[in-house]
Amino acid sequence: MISCTRVDLGLLLLRLGTGGVLAAHGAQKLFGWFGGHGIEGTGQFMESVGYRPGKASATAAGLAEAGGGTLLALGLATPAAGAAAAGAMSGAAAVHAPNGFFNASGGYEYAASLALAATGIAITGPGRLSLDHALGHAVNRGWMLPITFGVTAAATAAVIGARVRQLQKDAEGDQEPLFEE
């Protein structure tokens, strides 16, 4: 019998809630479930906001959300799951940042909250009511945190940087010359 504390129960609820929301968002992107647009529609949206190629971007975001969310909910490979989810939500926050903070105005509040929750779970650990605990924390070691978050931060920075360059290039192409030559 597993003895658990309030902290273990709180972490279980936080993992189930955060992981469930992330997994559902990923399923929208990947499969069109829950009112989503699937790879095709999400890929078109990704293209429109500067993430190119769109289908590949939709697939990567969907896998990070669905996979990271499912693993967080299960409490399995918690450092990698938290990093994947945080990276995906950072990419989403970059899209919403021009609209300010609050979600009501289209801002990044929601994406940032999910990223912070996933990061907090990864740092704290999944608790005793988790697959990581049941498996002796074989894929939840302290040294995994800096590696998974370092790799994710580098990849996320590269992807967001490429998006910014693409948006700048698109904006320059839309400008009309002041004088005809």
Automatic annotation (TrEMBL):
Stored PANTHER family: INNER MEMBRANE PROTEIN YPHA-RELATED, OXIDOREDUCTASE CATD-RELATED
Leader sequence residues: 1-23
Membrane-related topology note: Multi-pass membrane protein
Keywords: Cell membrane, Membrane, Signal, Transmembrane, Transmembrane helix
Cellular localization per UniProt: Cell membrane
Principal subcellular localisation of the protein: membrane
Family: Belongs to the DoxX family.
Keyword Signal: yes
Name used for this protein in its record: DoxX family membrane protein
